[in-house]
Every structure is written in C-alpha cells, then in structure tokens.
C-alpha cells in the first residue's frame, strides 16, 4: 500500500540559500517518500535563489528547475499543500512568529550559518555553499532513513528535533 509523501517545509528569512539547498536535497534523496518545499519569512522584492547555491546543487547532481524564492505566506493559504513537518534552517526564522500552519505540523530547528554572508574570494564563497550543502545533506539523510513507523506526528517531531546540530540541541 502506497502512502502519500511526507510534506516538509524548510524555512529561512529570505529563502535564497539554506532553505533552497534543503528543499532540493530532500527532493533529490527523498525517494518519493518525502516532498520538500521552502519559503522565507521575509524574502526581498524580486528575491531569487543564490546563484552559488544553484551552482553547488547542479555540481552535486541535483535538479534546480522550479526552485524559486517565495514567502511562507503561500503555505498558509487554504489551497496550499498540507505540511507534516516544518523545519527552520536559520536562527532568525526560528525566532520569528510563524503563520498558522493548517494541521499543526511537527516542527524542528536545524540552524546553519548563512553561506551567502561569507566575505572572501569567489572560491571561498563557493566552498561555504558546498560545506552548508554537505551539512544539510547529512541531516536530510537521517530524516529519509527514518523507519516508516517513525513518521507519525509526535515521532517525526521528536526525531527531527534530535537531528538538530549539536550546538542547537542544548
């Protein structure tokens, strides 16, 4: 018997780097069991995914078509996909008051440093995106490999929160 995919929304402030990396990664390795989305609490006007993020995703063999920066308000609308899990990936978004999510999905925070905030050479900036993608992928792999019995709402929240970076788990 086939189950509908587990919908996961990754949130950040501008939805241009970390949340986009997480969306693409989960959709790439989620094997249809998961469907990822991303959004920002306050994307800038005409915000686009960071080109370095898209470059790193393509180099890792992940699809970038359809990735776009968008407001989290899209996912609070009545016709929006129902979310099972909402994960903040930046500390700013984690501290903000989120909209009401229909169905009260499980929540977790996986904080990552912003790779687009790195000052340095183009090579250093690209490396920051690679490192962030690598860190996100490690955590997403843990999520994808949860046994099917671990994806009810309470278990999903407990497991996703346990995957938080060590410094965030305290």
Report on the structure:
This protein has a single domain (about 5-165), classed as 3-Layer(aba) Sandwich (Rossmann fold), CATH 3.40.50. α1 crosses α4 (about 120-145) and α2 (about 50-60) packs across α4. A four-stranded parallel beta sheet has the order 2-1-3-4. The chain has six helices and four strands; from the N terminus they run βαβαβαβααα. α3 (about 90-95) links the parallel β3 (about 85-90) and β4 (about 105-110). It is α/β, with parallel strands linked by helices and about 170 residues long. Helix content is about 35%, strand content about 15%. It has helices at about 20-30, 50-60, 90-95, 120-145, 155-160, 165-170; strands spanning about 5-10, 35-40, 85-90, 105-110.
The total of helices stands at 6
Structural class: alpha/beta
Order of helices and strands: EHEHEHEHHH
Question: Ends: how far apart?
Answer: 39 Å
By DSSP, the count of extended strands is: 4
The total number of structural domains is 1
State the shape.
globular
What's the pLDDT, averaged over the residues?
Answer: 86
Please estimate the helix content: 25-40%
Largest sheet: 4 strands, parallel
CATH superfamily heading: Response regulator
Low-confidence stretches: none
* Assigned CATH architecture: 3-Layer(aba) Sandwich
Strand portion: 5-15%
CATH topology: Rossmann fold
* Strands side by side in the biggest sheet: 2-1-3-4
| Broad CATH class | Alpha Beta
Rg result: 15 Å
